[in-house]
Specification:
heterodimer, A: mainly alpha, MetI-like fold, 2 domains, B: 369 residues, alpha+beta, Rossmann fold, OB fold (Dihydrolipoamide Acetyltransferase, E2P), 6-stranded mixed β-sheet, 5-stranded antiparallel β-sheet, sulfate transport (chain A), transport (chain A)
Chain lengths: 285, 369
């Protein structure tokens, strides 16, 4: 709120120089890179009536794809929350040979083209791949099922959790868990009541980002998903299919739903986190 | 509860690249005592405190022992040692209110020994009253000043009624005035509740003011353990003497009972040979004329009135480093001290710490006063 007030020009002259210039450039950049394409997206919707829009976004096959996408993304995000937290913990709290390498590996899913990841996962988990061959006798099928979708999503989004939790964990003084120990707390209790609440905002943000990222993932999933209508089709694929049919309006309609869900989720996380952080910094965070 | 340490040592690092943080030490702390561990950084005082707490484990070789009263706690985990620990940077749980911070130790007790929530509430409020923070129970640590946060951390440490209270530079992060206040307040609290406490500090004044006994440490060794006044009057060695306050050096050659250094002379009853005498600033008296025993011409180079006394900096050709003398305001006015003035220094008392550690000499010149 205070930023808004100062934007209105009622604030006294600032000490820090360059506000006008830096904000101007930032806004221009945001407009060009983010807002312009988004406007284009909604522009495509202009030719669609409300009834048509509703018909497109509630089409049975599309609704099924929502459920597959959201379900798999939720599973992937939760798995990433657990393992990402563990990875961050291991990377921050312990010293072991190869720590640097593991730390660098964390960014690999970001660096790797997602299609490469998708093809790799698909070959690995298909019935004649290494992992697929191992799992098949156990009756577990990964490739071409929603498990495969979740796996691909988890692969591409794990850095979000690790990289948001890691710095917070690094900043957390050891003294805090030592204090809990001197007060008689068992390890589990100390973790649950002292360490986890500290990491909670970062963990939720990271998980949220991972979830939102998974909603939009395409390249990594498409090769492993199998793409059976009503079963293993993801929403991004539905958009892609519409585009191939030159049905730009239909593609935009479905995309707008994904966009709205992602945006709402990110906003909710931000608001919630702001409240939490304010408490830690004495009401003026 | 008394604390006894036998042969406790600590080595850090992997084999081959080890550093000895703590040489094997023995230490007896009596029941109800308030003991200060004093030393420069790297002297091993914090390591020693953390070993007492159980936050650090002592070396296996030599096998040391730590006893609280008759209880051998050497192998006891920190959470079962029944200690209270206060950290330099408070280490409060930032996501909990002041109340929840203080209550933490009580709420994590095993169910069967945990007091009822009403009782916890009463106890926490009593503790907060004791640290004069009852009005702040529902605040978060970030909303408190440093001094208040440290008081919360003290209340939190005392909530479980520990056998011993350990404080690691408890006032190190606070400003001078708050420090002074908290120091006095801790002393009162200690006298009232009568727990055994050990605190670490690098501030001599704090150690001397607060402790029943002070343990002076350097390089992982205990240099001296004594009551503050004994420590100040009869330091065991040169390190203790120099660490406890400002020191003036007088180096020279003794011949026939007279120490000579350039045109400075001082009568001493010492065998012939090179000598170094040490003097505290308040042990230097300034006069307008030399006397039979001391002829130490000096020039005043700086004067700063600090509190109850005036600090005067003195220089001379025969001095490698300037001397510091403290004079009373009355003397300051009588001598009409001014910068550039030439005067004579007369030692009231001097100290000498030859290489042989046990031969420390403290000599008072009775003739002059």
């Amino acid at each position: 709120m205070s930023t808004l007030a100062s934007l209105a020009g009622s604030a006294p002259k600032r000490v820090l120089p360059g506000f006008g210039l830096s904000l101007g450039i930032s806004l221009t950049f945001v407009s060009l890179v983010l807002l312009l394409p988004l406007t284009g997206l909604f522009g495509q919707l202009a030719g669609v009536s409300l009834a048509e829009y509703w018909a497109i976004v509630t089409d049975g096959r599309v609704v099924a794809s929502y459920l597959v996408t959201i379900g798999a993304a939720a599973v992937a995000a939760l798995a990433n929350a657990v393992f990402g937290l563990l990875l961050a913990w291991v990377l921050v709290r312990y010293d072991f040979p190869g720590k640097r390498l593991l730390d660098a590996l964390m960014d690999l899913p970001f660096a790797l083209p997602t299609a490469v990841a998708g093809i790799t996962l698909a070959t690995l988990y298909s019935s004649n791949g290494w992992m697929g061959g191992l799992l098949a006798p156990l009756g577990l099928e990964v490739a071409y099922t929603w498990v495969g979708i979740a796996l691909a999503m988890a692969f591409t989004s794990i850095p979000f959790v690790v990289r948001t939790v890691q710095p917070v964990l690094e900043d957390m003084p050891h003294e805090v868990d030592e204090a809990a120990m001197t007060l008689g707390a068992r390890d589990g209790v100390a973790f649950r009541r002292v360490i986890l609440p500290h990491l909670w905002p970062a963990l939720v943000t990271g998980t949220g980002l991972a979830f939102v990222r998974s909603l939009g993932e395409f390249g990594a999933i498409i090769f492993i998903a199998g793409n059976t209508p009503y079963e293993t089709e993801i929403t991004a694929l539905m958009i892609f299919v519409r585009l191939q049919e030159y049905d730009y309006a239909g593609a935009s309609a479905i995309a707008s739903v994904v966009l709205a869900v992602s945006l709402l989720l990110l906003l909710a996380i931000n608001v919630w986190q702001g409240r939490f952080v304010r408490r830690l910094h004495g009401g003026n965070g | 509860m008394s604390i006894r340490l036998h042969n406790v040592a600590k080595t850090f690092g992997k084999p081959g690249r080890q550093t000895r943080a703590l040489e094997p030490v023995n230490l007896d702390i009596h029941d109800g005592e308030l003991v200060g561990l004093l030393g420069p950084s790297g002297s091993g005082k914090t390591t020693l405190l953390r070993i007492i707490a159980g936050l650090e484990s002592a070396d296996r070789e030599p096998a040391g022992r730590i006893l609280f009263g008759d209880r051998d706690v050497t192998q006891v985990h920190v959470r079962d040692r029944r200690i209270g620990f206060v950290f330099q940077h408070y280490a409060l749980f930032r996501h909990m209110t002041v109340f929840d911070n203080v209550a933490f130790g009580l709420t994590v007790l095993p169910r069967k020994s945990r007091p009822s929530s009403g009782e916890i509430r009463a106890r926490v409020l009593r503790l907060l009253e004791m640290v004069q923070l009852e009005a702040f129970a529902s605040r978060y640590p970030a909303q408190l000043s440093g001094g208040q946060q440290q008081r919360v951390s003290l209340a939190r440490a005392l909530a479980l009624r520990p056998d011993v209270l350990l404080l690691d530079e408890p006032f190190g992060a606070l400003d001078a005035k708050v420090r002074q206040e908290l120091r006095r307040w801790l002393r009162h609290l200690h006298d009232e509740l009568n727990f055994t406490s050990v605190f670490v500090t690098h501030d001599q004044e704090e150690a001397l003011e607060l402790s029943d006994r002070v343990v002076v440490m350097s390089n992982g060794r205990i240099e001296q353990i004594d009551a503050p006044d004994t420590l100040y009057r009869a330091p065991a060695n040169r390190f203790v003497f120099e660490f406890l306050g400002d020191v003036n050096h007088l180096e020279g050659e003794v011949r026939n009972g007279v120490l000579t250094c350039g045109d400075a002379r001082l009568a001493v009853e010492l065998p012939d040979g090179p000598e170094e005498l040490l003097l505290r600033p308040h042990e230097v008296r300034l006069t307008e004329a030399p006397n039979a025993e001391a002829h130490l011409p000096v020039t005043v180079t700086a004067i700063s009135p600090v509190g109850a006394e005036v600090r005067v900096e003195l220089e001379a050709d025969w001095l490698a480093k300037p001397w510091l003398a403290t004079v009373r305001h009355a003397d300051f006015e009588r001598l009409e001290l001014a910068r550039g003035q030439r005067l004579f220094a007369v030692p009231r008392r001097w100290h000498r710490f030859p290489e042989n550690r046990d031969a420390a000499t403290h000599r008072t010149s009775e003739a002059i006063s």
